[in-house]
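User: Hey, my collaborator sent me this sequence without any context and asked if I could get a structure. I don't really work with proteins. Can you help?
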Amino acid sequence: MRSLAKEMMKEAEYRLKDLLAILMVFVFFSAGCAHRQAASIQSGSAHQEASFYKASTAESEVDQQQSNQATGERGSSGTDFDVFSLDGGSSGTDFDVFSDTETEQAKTEVTDPLEQWNRAVFLFNDKLYFWLLKPVSRGYKAVMPTPVRKGVRNFFHNITAPIRMVNALLQGKGRAASAELTSFLINSTVGVLGFGDPAKKWPELKPSEEDLGQTLGTYGIGEGFYIVWPVLGPSTLRDSVGMVGDWFLDPVWYVEPFEAYLTLWSLENVNETSFRIGDYESMKEAAIDPYIAIRNAYMQNRKKKMEE
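Assistant: No problem. I've predicted the 3D structure and written it out in structure-token form, which is a compact way to encode the shape of the chain:
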């Protein structure tokens, strides 16, 4: 009976990998379509803004002429000039209008057609954090000394070096890939399987956080729409494809049996959360809408990484 269960588990694992590969291909092409649509929408918005700018400039010139006429009739007092420059000039009103326009455009850059689904999953992940992940991480932190937890963090960061190295090569960052390889060799040997981080003594060996989502972005693949996955958290269509691809570059993914992989994956997440208890709570308390705050923070972080 136990052998039959193991065979069924292994078969399910193979099926899952096949489905993930198919999903990766499907979403790859979908992301490209979404990028083209977003580009056309953005160009249309830019055209509308240009037209609005011309209209507002013409109105400002008319108001200025009326202002000058009124000033001449009343004797051109300084007070009248200040009033007219605030009401009909190009400094106050136009600035506010364009600031609102830019804010609205920044908001529309985050395509979120699945917001109802995303909010439901966000709520699920929120409860999962407070009811399970946070208590477990607190207990883990109380039991494990800080040096041990840092060693575990170093180990998982070192073992995922192939993800960063391969994506650095795909992005044409040869120096970053070389630094990643050198850091991996030093930490795996002198650092005892990566539990230590002696490579940090050399700033030039500081690893660059590269992933397949960023690599696809450098090749012109649009980010697609925003999506929140159960347990995994916020992502985009492009980053979801990248996440699947990065799994195949992660040595931990090939650990068997599957239960052992889940154990290591859980250990990595609990250990990492033990360093960040309180961060999510602070952001949630400070935000009017935590869902929007998390979404914007994620998109800004990914944009920053793309620009590095």
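In plain terms: The mean pLDDT is 76. You can pass these tokens on to your collaborator as they are.
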